[in-house]
Amino acid sequence: MSSDHAPGAERAAAVRHGAEAETGTESGSGAGAGAGSTAVRLHHRLDGPAGAPLLVLGPSLGTTLEIWEPQMEALTASWRVLRYDLPGHGGSAPAGGSSADESAAEPSAGVSGVEPEAVEPVAGSIAAAPAAGLTVDALAQAVLELVGEERFAIGGISLGGAIAATVAARVPGRVTGLVLCCTSARFGEPGPWRERAAAVRREGMRQLAPTLVGRWFTPRFAEGDPGRISWVLEMLHAVDPGSYAACCEAIAGYDLTGGLSAITAPTLVVAGAGDPATPVEHALTLVRGIDGALLTVVPGAHLASVERAAAVTSAVTRHLHETGVPTDSGTGSPAGTGSSVGNGPSAGDGRSGASAAGGSSPRRDERPIAGTRDDDDRRAAGMRTRREVLGDEHVERAIARTTAFTEDFQDLITRYAWDEIWNRPGLDRRTRSCVTLTALVAGGHLEELAMHVRAALRNGLTPDEIKEVLLQTAIYCGVPAANAAFAVAQRTLAESGA
């Protein structure tokens, strides 16, 4: 096992990502997934200030730990970020095999320096995968080996998200926050995944590239940023084919649907509006299954952390800071914490989520007792909601256009529309978006409709659900009004990549 630093060693000074290579910890780690299972060894890297809370991030199938690079500057402002590679990806040994040096090495004691005990799988979470025998449960156990006994937040994209959800379901008392990005409780039927595994074993990795680029990114992004596409494809082409196939078979056997209720950590689910691999419906399953989970939908496809890096960074940093950083950590507000987060179907109902310290803290949608809030409180809460629903870019433009003549009106809608109405617990944000779309069509306010179609996507509505709302308006608001609304909505959805 090779390592720049011992995995449990404390660094003398705070380290920020982006410094020289030796500022990060890189090593291979052995982990057993329980009796009779094959050990999984994960290469990993640790960046961020010594003593800061720990955040673990997992990559998508076919990519490496570098896939989170766009988020690292913001995240390492307040977190030690541990990123890992999947078997046969990046620096990790191939699935089912390792070098002689790695085989002889002692398993890593994790970042805490304490050897953890194996944890029993959550009931109903994983069915055994065929062939190489790799399972998502085994990968989750390998991640727990890296962490040791420390409490931590965890997140991941695609397969990394499935691993994060499995960890959160298995050790709910230790997970302070959870981020599930473009992932699923079940990635469809197992047959296609096993077929892909067989094809990769026969033909190698390069034959996947054309198909995966179309699933990972929208055509507009792929055509407009070829350098970024090449960067991601370099990761894909370097993956060991047998390990990629083993991961496909692990996905084929994965089904956490029945185990979602075991997750108690404050959870953010991020979905790409145009993601063909894990459509928004998969995100809604997660939101409905995890108590108090929040949903944000960003434009783009499967690798949203790359295609919509700023929006994902904003949503993740805000969520982790509000729900995942222990109050005694001594960290300040993360950089770039504007957010496009929107409440999902289960948000806005007054439930409390677990705080990072293990107690109970109010969710952002709970409201203080009437009469205890002044205008400054309303203004701050309203501005936060306005940014979450409409997006930072729109709100910044509106603020920039504010004049002495309009500033009182802007203040009024921030305090009363975006706080007193949008933050009321009686309706979730999906429902409020449906009502708003209908009202705008009825009033003929097409100049506002495009903005609220985008807001509806952020609040978790799918394009099909938006279509159903507009069909309803044809009956009650008139066909001409609905016809004009469909034209606006279709153009807006296309621009959003939905």
From TrEMBL:
UniProt biased composition (Basic and acidic residues): 362-387
InterPro entries linked to this entry: 4CMD/NDH-1_regulator, AB_hydrolase_1, AB_hydrolase_fold, AhpD-like, CMD-like, Decarb_PcaC
Ranges of Low complexity composition bias in the record: 95-110, 352-361
Pfam families documented for this protein: Abhydrolase_1, CMD
AB hydrolase-1 domain location: 53-308
Molecular functions per Gene Ontology: peroxiredoxin activity
NCBIfam families: decarb_PcaC (TIGR02425)
Name by which UniProt lists this protein: 3-oxoadipate enol-lactonase
Organism encoding this protein: Planobispora takensis
